[in-house]
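Task 17 of the worksheet. Students: predict the tertiary structure of the chain below and write it out as structure tokens. Keep your answer in the requested format; marks are given for formatting as well as content.
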Amino acid sequence: MIEVRSLPLSDVKVITPPIFRDERGFLSETYSRRALSEVGIDADFVQDNHSLSRSRGVLRGLHFQTQPFAQGKLVRVLRGAIFDVAVDIRHGSATYGQHAACVLSAENRSQMWVPAGFAHGFCTLEPDTEVLYKVTAFYAPQCDKGIAFDDPDIGIAWPVAAGEVLLSDKDRRHPRLRDLPTECAYTST
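Model answer:
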């Protein structure tokens, strides 16, 4: 049976699938629609994304897609470790602008469920970190948005010094949450 733990933002979950070990190694059912549905996560995944970050301190995010292509994500680490973050961007939510974070690693084999309505980002804690995540909507460049990783109103305590963070040019240009255009507001459909 999978283990599910809520983070401070109760809609964001840490999921740890069971691992069956013997002298040959291990087997783990990393995704089961039925098992997730039984714990309240009824998601229809349409695409898997796999990233490799060569250095410690690579920061990807904070990303989200607007409607009608808002994405839920199920994130896990195949090699290395990340500090994984979700930020509530649901206007009208009691936790709007708040974040939750946890460490995901190849060693702990945990996964983070980030529902639609949350921005997502991560920072690598080890070199050569590989991340695999399932998404509930296809990539739509016209709906691809982001929030500044260092937005002081959100106050994420990233585990690397600001001077050590490696960002893409795109991620350097994200606005603060309070400066997002109103069309970026998340509303459930």
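Marker's comment: The longest helix spans residues 33-38. The mean pLDDT is 94.
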